[in-house]
Amino acid sequence: MAPWLPLLLASCLSWVARPASGSSNPPLAVNITWSSINFKTILEWQPKPVDYVYTVEIAGKRSNWKKTCIYTKGTECDVTNLVQDVNDTYTAHIFSEVATEDEIGVEELPYSNSEPFTPYKQTIIGKPGIKSFQYNTDHTKLHVVIEDPSTPYKLPSGTLKTIREIFKDDLKYTIYYWRASSTGRKQESTNTNEIEIHVDKGENYCFYAQATIPSRKELRNSQESQIVCTGHEGNSFNDYGIGMLVAIGIAAVVIILLIVALSVTLYKCRKLKNEEKAKENKSLNYI
Fold first, then answer.
1. Closest Cα partner for 84 from 170, 153, 161, 162?
2. What pTM did the predictor assign?
């Protein structure tokens, strides 16, 4: 064998293995997290791309891979519509690729894997609402109706599904309540959206609701609802909470400002009229 042949072969192999200019792989996505409230699900990651883009691909154990947020320069992606089978467990790939026409889709792209995500077990349950409440005739019981949080998913009728329509019997509510003049807190639970609590006649009460998913080991409890307080007669202004009081306050301020503005306008009009009358009288005196 000629002595120069091994050197020539090594040189050729070195040239073939050398990457083309500008074709180095961009950074991979890190800190990938699933952020989900009431089944509205956002995939988030880092870092913010510079001179490259991301593409997200998702699949469940019972579903095929689907791409979304293709060639995005952001660091989050709404994947709600790709995880509608809430009992399935999903995994995401986040591809990193250089944003040039010559390289997109040319070769196997580097990607990062997310942790598995099961919406039924991991979405955070948001604040329930207090739909209505009413005392009985002798003011010894308070009947409370709780409103389920809505989800992004729709029923065939076009209305949004509530968490009750997804969790069904695996959802219960707890009402935490206390006398307005006391700090001692009591609680009552129900498997439905209605609950009746025993109260002391003539006392004011404050309360809030919280949902629980008993089958879960983690993230069992929802966010707490707004605190609502009753009036002595029931269904008074206090029943509508802080939001209603703020609205009433704003309305009162607007009315006061309108009254002040109207008073100032009438005063100026009267003053102008008096000045004109004074001028007329002055002119008559000269005559």
1. 153
2. 0.70
